[in-house]
């Protein structure tokens, strides 16, 4: 075959291959541009999972493309920041949003949103410190048995406008539990009778403070006896010092307190109260 024929054939092959390469490159550029456009639209619509997929597709068309890679990393960091905030991992959230903000030649939309989230984080951290301070104060008041004051402090905390936001869920849960504990303690205080500071069974000569109450045997008024009976029936413990004082009173009335256990002394107090008698009267009748 003549040389000119080979030259023509060669030229045709080169043109075909070149044309194919150009066509493929053109299609690749079109696919890349379309994927990037879809990704930007998804970011604008806050459809971040879709945006990640689109930017990954763009990178398949043009591997190592700086723009597509930057957009993809920005999107991933932004999603990571949002997730960390929901889980109250504020330091991690801050790191992710800063990575979005500091990216070069990336999405301005994501940069603006990251700056807004960083500003929100500062507010969250300030609120968290304030809420924790109030909770610690309420907890200390509860431990000091200042239940009413603790309840007021908890109310101040729970009345805060943002306390129910998910960022403060841990503090909110602890505060509601503390409020419940305070309410129970206050209810117990209201239903538990208070024993007299000086038990009537230690003072057989006590007189009623009310002129309308007539004293019973041994100088005890009905009101005093009822109060003592109520205190005993509520299972309030009798201090060791009072038990020792009752022993002396039993001995002075002719009883033998040394042979009696502490429980025997308590039983004697109960019986004397039920009979509306002083310990000395009871001892002179039943413990000789």
UniProtKB/TrEMBL annotation:
<feature type="region of interest" description="Disordered">
    <location>
        <begin position="183"/>
        <end position="266"/>
    </location>
</feature>
<feature type="compositionally biased region" description="Polar residues">
    <location>
        <begin position="185"/>
        <end position="195"/>
    </location>
</feature>
<keyword id="KW-0802">TPR repeat</keyword>
<dbReference type="InterPro" id="IPR011990">
    <property type="entry name" value="TPR-like_helical_dom_sf"/>
</dbReference>
<feature type="repeat" description="TPR">
    <location>
        <begin position="32"/>
        <end position="65"/>
    </location>
</feature>
<feature type="compositionally biased region" description="Basic and acidic residues">
    <location>
        <begin position="241"/>
        <end position="250"/>
    </location>
</feature>
<protein>
    <submittedName>
        <fullName>Uncharacterized protein</fullName>
    </submittedName>
</protein>
<feature type="compositionally biased region" description="Polar residues">
    <location>
        <begin position="205"/>
        <end position="238"/>
    </location>
</feature>
<dbReference type="InterPro" id="IPR019734">
    <property type="entry name" value="TPR_rpt"/>
</dbReference>
<feature type="compositionally biased region" description="Polar residues">
    <location>
        <begin position="255"/>
        <end position="266"/>
    </location>
</feature>
């Amino acid at each position: 075959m003549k040389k000119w024929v080979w030259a023509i054939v060669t030229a045709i092959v080169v043109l075909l291959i070149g044309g194919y390469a150009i066509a493929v490159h053109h299609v690749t550029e079109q696919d890349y541009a379309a994927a990037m456009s879809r990704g930007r639209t998804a970011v604008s619509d806050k459809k971040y999972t879709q945006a990640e997929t689109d930017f990954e597709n763009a990178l398949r068309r043009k591997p190592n493309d700086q723009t597509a890679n930057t957009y993809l990393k920005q999107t991933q960091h932004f999603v990571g920041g949002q997730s960390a905030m929901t889980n109250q991992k504020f330091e991690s959230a801050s790191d992710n949003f800063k990575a979005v903000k500091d990216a070069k030649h990336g999405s301005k939309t994501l940069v603006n949103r990251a700056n807004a989230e960083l500003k929100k984080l500062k507010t969250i951290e300030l609120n968290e410190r304030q809420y924790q301070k109030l909770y610690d104060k309420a907890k200390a008041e509860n431990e000091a048995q200042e239940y009413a004051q603790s309840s007021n402090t908890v109310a101040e905390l729970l009345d805060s406008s943002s306390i129910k936001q998910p960022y403060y869920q841990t503090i909110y849960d602890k505060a509601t539990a503390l409020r419940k504990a305070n309410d129970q303690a206050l209810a117990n205080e209201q239903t538990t009778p208070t024993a007299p500071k000086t038990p009537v069974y230690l003072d057989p000569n006590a007189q009623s403070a009310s002129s309308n109450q007539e004293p019973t045997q041994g100088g005890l008024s009905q009101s005093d006896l009822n109060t003592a009976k109520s205190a005993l029936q509520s299972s309030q413990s009798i201090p060791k010092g009072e038990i020792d004082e009752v022993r002396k009173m039993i001995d002075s009335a002719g009883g033998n307190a040394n042979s009696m256990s502490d429980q025997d002394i308590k039983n004697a107090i109960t019986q004397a109260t039920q009979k509306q008698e002083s310990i000395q009267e009871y001892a002179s009748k039943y413990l000789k």
